[in-house]
């Protein structure tokens, strides 16, 4: 039956706002509670145990706010494992990796797929495992692109330095003639112009932000969880760090809905709560 | 050499703002002058001659504002023919149809591609001709979806009525087992959740907004036309009809950049100007 509660979404920072925007585009009547853990951003250098514990805290926080679904809009969280969240949340949990992998496997014509991401994401091997699970015949070629996030965050998508770095990072994927490229980081959709130039016109780019948004849509329709209320939804954007700089990046990544960012700390998951 | 002038973009209404947003995402340092001909929207029922004359007027108006490129963010204009603009504008002219067709042909695995659009776009046969030009082996299956634009404009992407209409419109494409669907209308990216549900998970959706934005990026890089100026760009959003309702739709289609919409009429192209 219809469910007027908000969708909960979280990320280590502001990159997940590209996912938020894709969701709001496809579901303009759904309220969203977004949490960016900007005080502890980036998660890239954290241990898996630490990231899992952060994810537990944030999931608990969002579930306490009575969300009807959890969207893990962060590759770093997902590579550290979201099985526990999926098992215990009691609401549907949707992540970026499975959505991107499924779309990549659907799109490839020659069975060679590339994936790019942060060092932590690529080194985790999570995309390799996900592809192997779905289709053992497909060859996945990975590349870490550590410089991309800082360039995007300072609004640079076109500089010669960035282009040179991109050519270097992507060279192995071009050499292997991948025909599909999964953007395994929520910042990268903002680089799709650059990536298409470097990969060449025949490569299909997969934005996991878009793919997750379509998964969220499908899950709400399938499970009859759409909001029934007709008044425009009110969104909440929360972050654990500086609200001003989050709002500034947010205006570019997301849009006008970011007007009201509130600082928010999360408490460590309580012992004995089933999340400790 | 670098070119600090704005990109000019136009549409019959507000749908092209999805293209504007995709361009601003990929090129955050480029100023944009957008013209929505909302007073004469929709172009769907106009004659080809009339649409060509509107396109000439608007192109002239934008060129008078010294744009470095013209982006035709409107299928109805493009199906009426933009060869004349391309020949006479003196700046690069980029359109939605070629971008969408190219991406669709790149993505198909079984050689069967679908395209959806307004009645005018589909009946024009422009997509059929474009596909035949590029690859005579590919079979294109078309469907007009007249109800989609009004649903999107009133913020409905999920109602049972819309879903039923979509199933009806798309049934021939599902029956023909197209594996790729070109969204041949700038409003349709906002329906991609719905379209993926109806078409099934194996179909690749092509957003011409995204594809045009990548073409704009590639053209500016290739021709060395990127803006060099580092101050944040100032955009202009102009429309020929009611600025208030344009701004309201714009906030959802585009985002915060739409804050200042100005009403603007265009003069018929001058006799003897080469555009009459």
Would you summarize the structure shown here?
The first copy, chain A, contains twelve helices and ten strands. Chain A has helices spanning 17-26, 48-64, 75-79, 83-88, 96-107, 119-124, 126-134, 148-153, 160-175, 192-199, 208-222, 243-253, and strands at residues 7-11, 32-36, 69-72, 93-95, 112-117, 139-144, 180-183, 204-207, 236-239, 261-263. At the A-B interface, helix 5, helix 10 and helix 11 of A face helix 5, helix 10 and helix 11 of B.
Overall helicity of chain A = 40-55%
Instruction: Determine the N-to-C terminus distance of chain A.
Output: 32 Å
The strands making up the biggest β-sheet of chain A line up spatially as 4-3-1-2-9-10
Largest interface: A-B, 40 and 39 residues
In terms of structural class, how would the helical and strand content of chain A be classed? Answer: alpha/beta
**Shape, principal axes of CA atoms of chain A:** globular
- For the CA atoms, what is the radius of gyration of chain A? 18 Å
Supply the number of helical segments of chain A.
Answer: 12
Low-confidence stretches of chain A: none
Please tally the β strands of chain A and state the result: 10
- Beta-strand residue fraction of chain A: 15-25%
Multimeric organization: homodimer
Largest sheet of chain A: 6 strands, parallel
């Amino acid at each position: 039956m219809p469910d007027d509660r908000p969708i909960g979404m979280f990320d280590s920072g502001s990159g997940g706002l590209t996912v938020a925007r894709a969701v709001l585009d496809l579901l303009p009547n759904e309220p969203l509670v977004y949490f960016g853990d900007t005080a502890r951003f980036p998660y890239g250098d954290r241990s898996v145990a630490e990231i899992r514990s952060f994810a537990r805290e944030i999931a608990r926080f969002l579930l306490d706010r009575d969300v009807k679904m959890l969207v893990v809009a962060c590759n770093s969280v997902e590579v550290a494992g979201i099985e526990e969240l999926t098992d215990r949340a009691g609401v549907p949990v949707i992540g970026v990796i499975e959505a991107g992998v499924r779309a990549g496997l659907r799109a490839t014509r020659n069975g060679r797929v590339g994936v790019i991401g942060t060092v932590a994401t690529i080194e985790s091997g999570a995309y390799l495992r996900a592809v192997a699970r779905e289709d053992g015949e497909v060859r996945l070629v990975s590349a870490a692109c550590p410089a991309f996030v800082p360039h995007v965050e300072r609004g640079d998508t076109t500089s010669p330095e960035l282009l040179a770095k991109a050519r270097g990072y992507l060279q192995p994927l071009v050499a292997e003639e991948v025909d599909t490229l999964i953007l395994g980081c929520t910042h990268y959709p903002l680089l799709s112009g650059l990536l298409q130039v470097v990969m060449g016109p025949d490569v299909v780019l997969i934005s996991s932000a878009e793919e997750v948004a379509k998964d969220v849509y499908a899950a709400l329709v399938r499970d009859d969880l759409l909001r029934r209320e007709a008044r425009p939804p009110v969104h909440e954007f929360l972050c654990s760090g500086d609200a001003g700089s989050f709002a500034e990046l947010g205006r570019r990544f997301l849009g006008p809905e970011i007007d009201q960012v509130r600082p928010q700390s999360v408490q460590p998951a309580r012992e004995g709560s089933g999340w400790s």
